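To fix ideas, we now present one chain and its tokenised fold:
***
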Amino acid sequence: MERFGSVGFGSVLLVCLMSGASALLHSANQHSRCKSCDPRPAACISNQCNSNCSVSRVCPNPQDVCAAVWWRGLSSGMVTVETMCHDPALALRGVMLQDYSGSECVLSITQTLRVCGCTGHECNERLLFSKHTEEEDKTATASGINPFKLKQLCRFCDIESTVCNGTGVCESSCHISAICEKPEQVCVSSWRRSNGSAIIETVCHDPALPFRGQFLKDFNSSICEMKRVKGAEDEYVCSCDAEECNDRLIFSDGADPVSPRPDEPKLASLLLVCLVPSVVALVLLVSLLYVYCACRQHKLKAPATKDMDSETRAIIIMNDDDRSDNTLNHNLELLPIQLDSSVGKGRFAEVFRAKLKHASQSFQTVAVKIFPYEEYASWKTEWDIYSDAELRHENVLLFLTAEDRKAAQQYWLITAYQERGNLQDFLSQHVIGWDELCRLGGSLARGVAHLHSDRTPCGRAKVAIVHRDLKSANVLVKSDLTCCLCDFGLSLRLDTYTSPEELANSGQVGTARYMAPEVLESRMDLENIESFKQADVYSMALVLWEIVSRCSATGDVREYEPPFGKLKEHPCVESMKDDVIRDRLRPEIPASWSNHTGVHLLSSTIEECWDHDPEARLTAQCVVERFSDIISSDIITSTGDSGSDDK
């Protein structure tokens, strides 16, 4: 009987385990597994690209498919690919997926971006440029896009001297890349001796035409293998069709210094045995770091909403490297933009709602900030800040591109458009609930923390930036009721090599109502770059006070007013000195804020952020963590006011 009971219990346990495993397998089968990587350079050959993504994950929603976004930088020429899980019912970077039921990711044709979707296992690892319908081909041709093959990116220095001696493997020493004029052209290099000196020529060339008296061979290769020119003793030519493949020249009839000699197989095997475990351990370590970073970012975010923001994230990479005149590339075509109406005007520029026309004749709503020619310095400062690729963040306004509109004597900055407008106008027209307070305040803190950080969320180095004009009018409200920072015309990059003299020359800037005491008094500690961040935190505290003052969770919502609202509309620096420095005044914290535990805790955080002593203030990242702790705390209870109401 005891034996029977033991067997019976074992059988039941086995059945349970098998059922659980089956359920888990069934659950996993309901979700796609896709490549998921931030934008990164892609390897493209002929009519396909490899995403170069080593990270894959199970999609969070059963309706998600694997997707990818492809674009080529207008100035750098670099092809970039971003991979992710995506709900095909939503627009991807402003474009709807056309066909995502297949097992291959076939890129669609648009003016600036290409997107694709598929349903196979990690099917977005390889992206294809396939044949389209006759109508799509006409549209693509009209837009200057060849649907069958990408225009090649090659080294292009024409003729220059070289130290390459025509044996083994050599580098071209050419530092200039160019997108070939025609899609059928390939990358070509030639090496020869002239008057005793070696010279190299790097160009784009159509293989249907002869080059230096002979037709090119092996131009479909991804490497540039030198072949001797017939009838010439000291002249070689190679061709290939991979990006910048004519930079590395391989002389096959010479010794290849990168290949192991026949008498070295044991050494190669020994190195392989020693390196493989180290590489595996390194990959595991990087994977764990990535997972930790992703989890930490998720933890610090405010609670998600069902109606997530679907703002267009079309990206046009703009670089001004090696441009001594600090201007745009004058050869770039201006985007087809139609201005609608003015939505705001500041000291240096005016912002317009506008329409960006796509090749498909559809329109995308964008914002255009227009500077007159005499405000070049302000435009250039803001453009320099936006051009930093590491600035990209969900709580920083999405930047598209910058343009020099010579005909109108104007400089343009083109960004995403936020229909809800700026935070000041939003708060003056709406009463918010506790959940909305957390979304608005938490996202504001995350945006400022990202600016101030010298690392991206996943550990990449970035230059810390201070805004220096934080106020509710310079914060936009997105459709999901989170904030994004804008207007970086007074911002400053805190490079480690920036001297105190340069910092001192930046002047006393900002809006007097939101200036920290030390800024009003012109007594910033220029030896410590953290002092600039501390001034930003003071200004952020005033904006947080504005948000909390319109929250219905306290049971006492007053009419909207800016900080120090009893002062005149645009107080000067001297009048702010009297209140902020001499009298140590701060905006009122009403007694009713103690009626709600969460609001009470936030008011304490705000008071720490506007402390008179800069060193005593919290950092922006600390405020992010405070929001996270308050939101996740069990003692916070909702008052039932979770939606915003009109004023």
Remarks:
- The chain has a mean pLDDT of 79.
- The domain at 33-142 is CATH 2.10.60.10 (CD59).
- Residues 265-300 form the longest helix (36 residues).
